[in-house]
Automatic annotation (TrEMBL), chain A:
Protein name as it appears in the record: TldD/PmbA family protein
All residue ranges annotated as the Metalloprotease TldD/E C-terminal domain in the record: 223-438
Domain Metalloprotease TldD/E N-terminal per the UniProt entry, residue ranges: 25-89
Species of origin: Hymenobacter tibetensis
Domain of life assignment: Bacteria
TrEMBL record, chain B:
Pfam families, sorted: PmbA_TldD_1st, PmbA_TldD_2nd, PmbA_TldD_3rd
Boundaries of every Metalloprotease TldD/E C-terminal domain copy: 296-543
Family label: Belongs to the peptidase U62 family.
Protein name (record): TldD/PmbA family protein
UniProt superkingdom: Bacteria
Keyword Transmembrane belongs to the record: no
InterPro entries reported in the protein's UniProt record: Metalloprtase-TldD/E_C, Metalloprtase-TldD/E_cen_dom, Metalloprtase-TldD/E_N, Peptidase_U62_metallo, TldD/PmbA_N, TldD/PmbA_sf
Keyword Protease: yes
Domain Metalloprotease TldD/E central positions: 163-253
Gene3D superfamilies (alphabetical): PmbA/TldD superfamily
Residue intervals of the Metalloprotease TldD/E N-terminal domain: 66-129
Alphabetic keyword roster: Hydrolase, Metalloprotease, Protease
C-alpha cells in the first residue's frame, strides 16, 4: 500500500475533510517503502525492509488547533481520527503564533523526483550490488564496509481552504569505506540518486579502493594554515554535520533578527543584503533541477520554487516561518529541500593540476559547532588526505583536526570546480587558502 | 485523572511553528496523550504473537529467530520564554523479527501486530537472509545463550512521567523560563523529554522477556545578547537525562553537589532543581559576555562529572565497542585504536588512577535493563583496571571472534523497526578511594581551568584526537578560582589524556552524566547511556583559544 497514486491519495483526503466540522482542516498523507543492506569485513552484516503509510489530520477552531494521526484507512478509523483532532483542538488554548491555513497554491509541475527503477528495487538487487563491492575488495585484498539504502515514497496534502498537493519521490544512497589490511590506508566514496539507473556500486568501490591504496603509510606534516582542495563529500556529508550545510542551516531570519546568529547586526536587525562571501559564491535552490529534483511544496504547503540564497557573495534571502514573516514584515520563504552551489567546469583532478602546494581532503568527520557567533566548527579529515606539490599528489598525509568557519572559508576561495550531487544537493569541489588545521590525528 | 488535565495544552502542538528534530525521539506517530496511559499489551498475548513469528520463520528455513514486540511512548514538552511551543506525544507499536537462514542474518519489521502480520514479516526476514546468503562467505556464529523462560524486568521508578498532568509539566518549564528571564537571560528555551519502552523479547533459545523502561530529561538553553556589540552567548542546563520517573524533578538538598568555591556551579545527582539551575544559568551566561578570553597553553584541568561524562563516552565508551574494533562501523562511526593487537601489547590506556567499569545494572542510569535485545541477562564488568584495558563490550555474534564464550549483553535497537546491534552500556570512571573534596583538589592546582557542563565535542574515527568545550570555564590560579574564562577548548590524544589523569574526588562527589541520543549504525540509530564519575584532575592538557573574527 505504500505508494498511493495522486487519485488514490486525494480520494482518501477528500473523505477525511468531509468528516470535518472544524473551521479549518488539513490532512497530510504520506508513505514510503524501501530497504537497506549493510556490509563490513567484506560480508553482509545487516539488512532490512521498511513499509509505512500514515495520515495526519489538523483541525482548527479559531486560533485553537489539534492534530491526530492514524495508519488505517477504513471510514470508521478516518472519522475517529478527525473527531480526535477536533476534540483536542476544542480543548486547546489559543496559539500566540497562529496563522490561518493556506488556500489553493500553484506548484511547479513535473519535477523528476520519482524513478520507477528505484521504486522497483528488490532484496536481490541490494544483495547483488553489495556483493559486487565485496567481490572487488576480496580480489584487491582490501576490506570494505558499505551501506546501500533505497526508498520510494509520496506526500499528499489537502485542506478545506482549497490547498491540494501531491508528489512522489525516490532516493538511493550508497557509501563505502575501504581499508588496507595493514590498517595504514583508508578510502571513501559516496553517491546518491533519484534514479537508481545511474548507480553502480562497483564504480564507487573502485574509487574508494584506489584511495585506500594511495593513502597507505601517510606522513605527518605540521598543522597550520594550508591551501586545501575540499572534495564535495568533504563539504556536504550524508553521514554527519558539514560545513556548507551548517551555513545553509544558519540562514534563518528569526534567529538573525533575534540577535543569535552570525547574520545578526549590531544594534538589531539582520545582515541580508550584505556581501559576506567571495563574489564567486552563488547558492540557490531549484526543486525542478533534474539532478536533485525534490518536493515542490514545504511541510506547511508553501510552494517551493527557484530561490537565490547567496548571489555573488551577497546574502539575498533568508528563510522563515509564516508567523515570523508576518510579524517582521519580511518575505515569506520556506526552507529549501536541496540547494545548488554554482561552480565551474574543473574536476578535482583539474584543480590538483593547478595547485603548487596544498592538501586534498576526501571527507571531513565529526563536525561540531564551537561558536555560533562566528559559525566556527571543528572536525577532522578522514579516509584519504593527500599532500599536493607542483600539480601532483605527492604523498598521503596524516589526518588533521580543523577549526574553521564556512564564512571565513568562503572568503578565502581560490577556485570552484564542477558541482556533483551529494546528499540531495549539488556541490562543487572548492579550493580554499589558509584553511586552519589545529592538530594532527593518528587515526586512519 | 481528568481528560482535560492531559489534553488541555496539547493543541498548541499543531499551532506551533516547529517540531524540533531530535534523533531517536518521537519516531512514532503523534497521538492523544491519553493513549500513553493505555496499559501495555498482556505478555500472554505477546507470547502468542511471538510464537507465530518463531514458527513461521522456522517453517521458512530459519535456524535461529528472535522477535521483539515493542511499544515506544514518547512525550516532549517544548517552551520558550512565556510560551508553550509544542507538546508532542507519540506512540509506536510493532514488531521486528531477526533470523539466521543459510547462516546469514535477515531482518524485517511490521506494524501489523497480528499473528498473520508477524508471520509474514518473519517470512520476509528469511527471504532477505536467503537473498543475502548468495553473496555471503562466512556463517554467523552465535554465542550460546540459555533460555530464561517467561521473565520480566521493570525500571524501579517512583512516578510514571506520563501520569503527570501536562499542565504540571508546562508549569515547571515556564517557571524555569521565568527564573532565567528574571535573572537576565535574553531568551530561554526549555524542554521535558519522557520515554517509556515496553519491550517484549522472544527467541528460539526459549526466552520470553517482558521489560518496562523509563527515561526522563528536563533541559533548557539560555541565551544572553549584548545588542550594542552584537555579541551573544549561551549556557545549557546542567541536568542529566536519567533512567528515572518524574520523581527526578523533585529536588532534594542531599542531591546537590557544589562546585569549587568561587565557581557558582551546582551539580545534581538523582534529583534536579531546574528552577535553581535556570537562575544560575542566566547569571552565568551574562557573566560569559564579559569573561576573559583564555590564553592558549598547557593547563591542569579539573573536570566536573557532567562534563567528564562526555569525555568518557567518546574516548573510552566508543573505542572499547568490539564492533568498532573489528571494523563493523568502519564506513560510518569509525573503528578504534584499541585493536586486539594493541590490547595484546599491554600498553597503558591511562594512569593507574583510571578504573573504568561497564555496567548495565546501575540504578537510575539510562542504560539499565534486565536483559538486552538478544535475550542476554545484563551484568557489570571491568573495561580498564589501573590504567590497563581488560575487556571490550560484546554481543552474541562477536564473542567467538575474541575467543570468548558469552555476550556482555550490549545488544540494543532504538525501536521495533530497527535491527538490534552492539550499543554501549553505561561506562563509568570509578571515584577515588581516598577522601578528597573538589575544593581540596582545586587547592593543589597551580595553573588550571575548572570546566562544568558539556559543550562542543569532536573526536576522530579511531578515537585518538579529540577536542572538547564545555558550558562554563573558570580560571584556577595558585589553588583558587579567580574568574570566568571564555573561548576555551582542550585538545588531546586519548591515551595521553587518560595517562595524565591525576585522580578523582571521592564517592560523595560521584554523579551520572547522560546522553539521550548517542548515534551509531547505518541506518543511524540512537541509544541512551549514562556515565558516572567524580570530579577528576588531568595535568598538562593543551587548551586552545577558539575566538575568531568574521567580517
Amino acid at each position: 500500500m505504500a505508494i498511493l497514486s495522486q487519485d488514490e491519495s486525494q480520494a482518501i483526503l477528500k473523505k477525511v475533510l468531509s468528516f470535518s466540522t472544524s473551521d479549518e482542516c488539513e490532512a497530510t498523507l504520506s508513505g514510503s517503502n524501501g530497504g537497506n543492506v549493510r556490509s563490513a569485513r567484506n560480508a553482509i552484516s545487516t539488512s532490512g525492509a521498511a513499509d509505512d503509510v500514515s495520515l495526519a489530520v489538523e483541525a482548527r477552531f479559531g486560533k485553537r488547533s489539534g492534530v491526530a494521526t492514524c495508519n488505517e484507512f477504513d471510514d470508521a478509523t478516518l472519522r475517529r481520527c478527525v473527531q480526535r483532532a477536533e476534540e483536542i483542538a476544542k480543548l486547546a488554548p489559543e496559539s500566540p503564533e497562529y496563522m490561518p491555513l493556506l488556500g489553493a497554491q500553484t506548484y511547479i509541475a513535473a519535477p523528476k523526483s520519482f524513478a520507477a527503477s528505484t521504486a522497483g528495487i528488490t532484496p536481490d538487487f541490494r544483495a547483488t550490488q553489495i556483493g559486487k563491492t565485496m567481490k572487488i575488495c576480496d580480489e584487491k585484498k582490501v576490506t570494505s564496509a558499505a551501506f546501500l539504502n533505497d526508498e520510494a515514497g509520496f506526500v499528499a496534502k489537502r485542506n478545506n481552504k482549497g490547498l491540494e498537493a501531491y508528489q512522489q519521490y525516490t532516493n538511493l544512497s550508497f557509501s563505502i569505506t575501504v581499508r588496507t589490511p595493514d590498517g595504514t590506508g583508508s578510502g571513501y566514496a559516496t553517491g546518491d540518486y533519484n534514479d537508481a539507473a545511474g548507480f553502480d556500486a562497483g564504480t564507487l568501490t573502485q574509487v574508494a579502493a584506489d584511495k585506500a591504496a594511495m593513502s597507505r603509510n601517510a606522513k605527518a606534516i605540521e598543522p597550520g594554515k594550508y591551501t586545501v582542495i575540499l572534495e564535495p563529500a568533504a563539504l556536504v556529508a550524508n553521514t554527519d554535520a558539514s560545513l556548507l550545510a551548517a551555513l545553509m542551516n544558519a540562514l534563518d531570519a528569526r534567529n538573525a533578527d533575534e540577535g543569535r546568529s552570525f547574520l545578526s547586526k549590531k544594534g538589531g536587525g539582520n545582515r541580508k543584503g550584505e556581501k559576506l562571501f567571495d563574489e564567486r559564491v552563488t547558492i540557490y535552490s531549484d526543486p525542478t533541477n533534474a539532478e536533485i529534483a525534490s518536493l515542490t511544496f514545504a511541510g506547511d504547503g508553501r510552494p517551493q520554487k527557484k530561490m537565490t540564497w547567496i548571489e555573488k557573495g551577497v546574502v539575498k534571502n533568508l528563510y522563515t516561518s509564516r508567523f515570523w514573516a508576518q510579524k517582521a514584515g519580511i518575505p515569506d520563504i520556506p526552507r529549501p529541500g536541496g540547494w545548488i552551489m554554482e561552480g565551474g567546469t574543473q574536476s578535482v583532478q583539474d584543480m590538483i593540476k593547478g595547485t603548487a602546494k596544498g592538501i586534498l581532503v576526501t571527507r571531513l568527520w565529526y563536525i561540531r559547532p564551537v561558536d555560533p557567533q562566528t559559525l566556527l566548527y571543528t572536525g577532522l579529515t578522514r579516509d584519504g588526505t593527500f599532500y599536493i606539490e607542483n600539480g601532483k599528489i605527492k604523498h598521503p598525509v596524516k589526518n588533521f583536526r580543523f577549526n574553521e568557519s564556512p564564512i571565513i572559508m568562503l572568503n578565502n576561495l581560490e577556485a570552484i570546480g564542477k558541482p556533483v550531487r551529494v546528499n540531495g544537493n549539488l556541490v562543487p569541489p572548492l579550493k580554499i587558502r589558509d584553511f586552519t588545521f589545529t592538530s594532527l590525528s593518528d587515526a586512519v | 485523572m481528568k481528560r482535560r488535565d492531559f489534553v488541555g495544552l496539547t493543541g498548541l502542538a499543531t499551532g506551533a511553528l516547529f517540531i524540533p528534530s531530535i534523533p531517536g525521539f518521537g519516531s512514532g506517530i503523534e497521538v492523544d496523550p491519553l493513549r500513553l496511559l493505555d496499559a501495555a499489551v498482556d505478555p500472554a498475548v505477546k507470547k502468542k504473537l511471538a510464537d507465530a513469528a518463531l514458527n513461521a520463520a522456522k517453517a521458512a528455513g530459519a535456524t535461529y529467530t528472535d522477535v521483539r514486540i515493542g511499544r515506544y511512548l514518547n512525550q516532549g514538552v517544548f517552551t520558550r520564554e512565556k510560551q508553550v511551543q509544542n507538546i508532542l506525544s507519540t506512540e509506536s507499536y510493532g514488531a521486528g523479527i531477526r533470523v539466521i537462514a543459510n547462516g546469514t542474518w535477515g531482518f524485517a519489521s511490521t506494524n501489523q501486530v497480528t499473528e498473520a502480520g508477524l508471520a509474514k514479516a518473519a517470512q520476509l526476514a528469511v527471504q532477505i537472509a536467503k537473498a543475502n546468503s548468495k553473496v555471503q562467505k562466512a556463517q554467523v556464529q552465535l554465542a550460546p545463550q540459555k533460555g530464561f523462560g517467561e521473565v520480566s524486568w521493570k525500571a524501579p521508578i517512583q512516578q510514571n512521567a506520563f501520569e503527570v498532568p501536562i499542565k504540571d509539566k508546562v508549569d515547571i518549564l515556564l517557571a524555569a523560563n521565568a527564573k532565567a528571564m528574571e535573572n537576565g537571560a535574553s531568551f530561554v528555551n526549555s524542554v521535558l523529554f519522557q520515554v517509556n519502552e515496553q519491550k517484549y523479547f522472544a527467541s528460539t533459545d526459549g526466552s520470553y522477556i517482558d521489560q518496562d523502561i523509563h527515561r526522563i530529561w528536563p533541559t533548557f538553553g539560555v541565551t544572553a545578547i549584548d545588542r550594542a556589540s552584537g555579541k551573544f552567548r549561551s549556557r545549557q542546563s546542567l541536568s542529566s537525562p536519567m533512567g528515572m520517573g518524574y520523581e527526578y524533578l523533585t529536588p532534594k538538598a542531599a542531591d546537590k553537589v557544589a562546585g569549587p568555591a568561587g565557581s557558582n556551579v551546582i551539580g545534581y545527582k538523582n534529583s534536579y532543581d531546574i528552577l535553581e539551575d535556570a537562575a544560575a544559568a542566566a547569571k552565568q551566561v551574562k557573566e560569559k559576555l564579559t569573561a576573559k578570553s583564555v590564553v592558549p597553553g598547557k593547563y591542569d584541568l579539573v573536570l566536573d562529572p557532567h562534563h567528564l561524562g562526555l569525555t568518557i563516552h567518546e574516548s573510552v565508551g566508543h573505542p572499547t565497542e568490539l564492533d568498532r574494533v573489528l571494523g563493523y562501523e568502519a564506513n560510518y562511526a569509525g573503528t578504534s585504536f584499541a585493536t586486539l593487537e594493541w590490547k595484546a601489547k599491554n600498553i597503558p590506556y591511562g594512569s593507574k588512577q583510571v578504573n573504568i567499569v561497564a555496567d548495565k545494572l546501575q540504578p537510575n542510569s539510562l542504560g539499565a535493563v534486565g536483559y538486552d535485545d538478544e535475550g542476554v541477562k545484563t551484568k557489570e564488568w571491568d573495561l580498564i583496571k589501573e590504567g590497563k584495558l581488560i575487556d571490550y563490550q560484546k554481543i552474541r555474534d562477536q564473542a567467538a571472534m575474541v575467543g570468548q564464550k558469552e555476550s556482555d549483553g550490549c545488544c540494543y535497537s532504538q525501536s521495533w523497526q530497527d535491527v538490534q546491534f552492539q550499543r554501549m552500556p553505561n561506562v563509568s570512571l570509578r571515584p577515588g578511594t581516598a577522601k578528597l573534596s573538589v575544593d581540596e583538589m582545586v587547592s593543589k592546582v597551580d595553573k588550571g581551568i575548572y570546566i562544568a557542563g558539556n559543550g562542543s565535542f569532536s573526536i576522530d574515527q579511531q578515537r585518538y584526537n579529540f577536542q572538547f568545550g564545555g558550558q562554563v570555564f573558570y580560571a584556577i590560579d595558585k589553588g583558587k578560582i579567580t574568574g570566568m574564562l571564555e573561548d576555551v577548548a582542550y585538545q588531546a590524544n586519548t591515551q595521553e589524556f587518560w595517562n595524565s589523569c591525576a585522580g578523582s574526588c571521592d564517592q560523595s562527589d560521584y554523579r551520572l552524566a547522560g546522553f539521550f541520543n548517542d548515534g551509531k549504525g547505518q541506518p543511524a540509530q540512537s541509544s541512551a547511556v549514562s556515565h558516572g564519575s567524580a570530579t577528576t584532575r588531568f595535568n598538562g592538557v593543551n587548551v586552545i583559544n577558539t575566538a575568531r573574527k568574521i567580517g
